[in-house]
Amino acid sequence: MTERTIAELQSVTFTYPDSQRPALDRLTIDIREGEFLLVVGPSGCGKSTLLRTLNGLVPHFSGGRFSGQVRVAGKDPVAAGPHEMSTLVGLVQQDPESQFVVDTVEDELAFGMENQGIAPAVMRGRVEEVLQQLGIVHLRKRRISALSAGEKQRVAIGSVLTLRPRLLVLDEPTSQLDPRSADEVLSTLRCLNADLGLTVICSEHRLERVVPYADRILYLSDLGARPVLGPPEQVLMGMPYSPPLTQLAKAFDWRPVPTTVEEAEPFRSRLGPLPKAYVAHQTLVGSPAPVVLQVQGLYHSYNSNGTFKDMTSAALKGIDFQARQGELIALMGRNGSGKTTLLKHLVGLITPQMGSVLVHGMDTSRTQLDELIRHVGYVPQDPGSLLFADSVREELEFTRKAHRLPPADTNQWLNQLGLSRLGDRYPRSLSVGERQRAALAAILVAEPDTLLLDEPTRGLDPLEKQTLARFLKAQTASGRTVILVTHDTELAAECAGRIVIMSEGRIVVDAPPAEAMAEAPAFATQVARLFDSGLLTVSDVLEAYAHAD
Description:
- It is a single chain.
- Among the domains are: 236 residues, 3-Layer(aba) Sandwich (Rossmann fold); 32 residues, no CATH class; 56 residues, no CATH class.
- 35% of the residues lie in helices and 21% in strands.
- It contains 22 helices and 19 strands.
- The strands form 4 sheets. A 6-stranded mixed beta sheet has the order 5-6-7-3-8-9, sandwiched between helices. Strands 15-16-17-12-18-19 form a 6-stranded mixed beta sheet, with helices on both faces.
- α6 packs across α7.
- The termini are far apart.
């Protein structure tokens, strides 16, 4: 890594239209050529705004009030605009699908170059080069709609790499990826950074995965607080939240602070044997509570006529599954394993092609959707699809009316999810994490017996995830059943009484968290991989060692 500066921001202040609160407030930072810069901070602190400022999307496409100076490779993005800056700054947004324009991988890689008027012969050479760099040659002719989430993420990266940018900027690139796909994408980014000298700027909430790759961390805290920019160890130790290994380093005074399980193993050995047998979760599969969801022999194919002669096309292949009242079940697995398809069956959005689904005693194939959703609340991956009122509070009031429920004080639900100050905000002006919580609140006010949540931690910072974890535990304690599809191993370890892991349309693991993570290490927490004793979280470790004689 060279110390030469490739980008600078001087006293940058930006306020979105109709907002009184600046998204960036007098931000001054430098970005070094060839570094891997990790941008972290709570939801709404300005991470996405900063990234969009580097290529001119802010303020060109956002509007708003902008002041200060920005320079990227000697150019001013505010003056140049996104089209001119696209050859210097490649931006991959939170949802890669939102930036796809054409149908196939090869055409998508070429699209940006066509807009820049690059000669066809040059285009063909660059497409071939990027296909090789990203290891996606075999996807050349594939339709983007048929790709996995990890493959789509790499295609999105490739679509900006063909323009030969000097900075690659990514907004939460692993937020929708399973652990293995996330590691594959991050390894690709590290290779581009190390082998090509490409400057990489990445915002992320899943710190435990990204920190090992970072040369420096930029921490943006609450408005008015000075940003912190420095080496990972220095920044992480001063943050109010940090990855599990950093938390352990603080508790046991490990120096230097480990960023990987391998680096932490020597420190773990110095702790000596575990002083007390301890298992984080005691909830047993098959508790005596009533069964509220029952799935038997469920098959589903998006391309089948219902005969299932070709099992390779099936998204679900003979699923047997049940959930009891008051259970919290984490549904995990690789992207494309069938998790969301199963969830949609449980709420009646998809009816069985073969097999049966009973929801609170109702056969979903014979029950109207309106009746099912009185009992089952569903928050999809895209929470924006549930939000259309003029304020968060109005969303909640609308849901009550739609379910023919009497008016109620919505503050209780807003408070539960940390939304009290956002009640009068326009939902679509909220951050991704805030929209997630607003959508959950809008479902919760209908008081369903069961909650189905598809990737509820997407866009949530670690402190928001702690709030969500407390909320979920409170729901199950009150007798509500919760099933969440998640790639967040830390959340699953903290909350779940059962972990169900799917692979290629089948359930391959169904067990309490400690057992499930032992059987499937790819879905284990950092603590579980470091301590081979049923410990899953930092709290488990501290509690276990607190009982030392």
